[in-house]
Structures are given as C-alpha cells and as structure tokens.
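So, can you check?
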Amino acid sequence: MPEAPLPSPAVLRVLVIGQAPRRELEEQIALAVPGLRIAMEGALDGMTRQEIARDAAPQGNADTLFTVLPSGETTTISKAVVTARLAEKLQHGGPTLLCCTGSFQGLPQRADLVQPSAVLNALSAALLPRGRLGIFLPLPEQLAPLGAKRAREGLETVLRSLRPLSDEATVDAAAREMAAQKPDLVLLDCMSYTRADKERMARHLDCPILLSIATAARAAACLLPE
C-alpha cells in the first residue's frame, strides 16, 4: 500500500507596507524563526516609483510611514493610502503578518492577522508595567504622535529617532544617547531594524531590547500548524 503524501509545509503570508520583495526582511524573519516559509506581498506592488511619489505621498506627520523599497532606497509614504490597499489584500488569505509597527485602523478584524503594534504594546506592558521605556523610531516627525500612542499610566517614555540602515557609528551614538537616559526596556519600533542593530545597541544599553521584527515573526509563527 503506497504511503500517504506528506502535507505541504505551512506558509505565513507577510504583507509589507511598501513593495515586495524585501530580501532583508526575509533574512531577519529567517533568523528569528528558522525554517519558516513565507509568501511576501507589498501594499504598493504594481506601482512605479513615480506613481508612489505622486499618489502615495504622506499628507502630514500623522500620515507618514517609513519604508524601504526593493531597490534599497528609503522613502516615506501615506498611511491612508497604504491602509486602503492593505484592506483590499486582507479580504482573503490565511495567517498573515503585517510587516509594520504602525497602528492601522479600518483593517478587517481577523484572529489570524498579527499587527506588530498590538503585540509589542501588550508585551512591553507585561514586561514593564511601570518604569522607563526607551523607543527608537525611524523619523523625527514620528516621535510626538507615536510616542503619545505608547503612553500609559506609570510609564515614562524616552524617544529617539534612528533611521534604519544607518551606519555603525550612527547606531552607536544613538545607543549611547539612549543609555544616558537609563531606560528599563528598549523597543526598536520599526520592522526595518535588524538583529545587527540590536547587537550593537546591547554593547551600550544595560537593559532588555525588543527587536520588532523578531518579536512579531515569532508571534505570527504561532498561528501555523506545529
């Protein structure tokens, strides 16, 4: 009697706010969850660089998202435009990781959708009910609005901007500035920060550091069959 075929390995769908492919994000997910199979899509897939600049430009600080394009170029894009395009893509598909730490309103309510902002908020609250939370964000204009969203009773936040893909000297300087504030916990609040960034920061910071992409990827992997 022939053996039954083995089931196909489960695949995690990953939605990036810009365009796929993002090889560097795939590498970071693989470091966090070795062997995890992913299928990546982008909210702005199919748009030219000119169309992104014309039709997806941010309309103010609260509408600004940071992303890296497949070419390695960094840019800012409209959260409203991204949200609308994500909502269309999320009408179908299985377990999904939204690859952005922003908080998105208006997306389909699904138990198999991991929004990193919710995971990180819950985890940081569990780890640090009271104390000083250090937060790194990509852009200076994000500090005020996103810092306010992280605020809660008993928590003091220390905010610093650090653009992902910065050189080692810049990462070291930012980490030293944060260390001077003596945080109890540090959050790298962007999916484009890397394990290498965390390792460099750990040389200067005497506290735990949460790397967003690793934390969110591990949470999303829990949705797949064992």
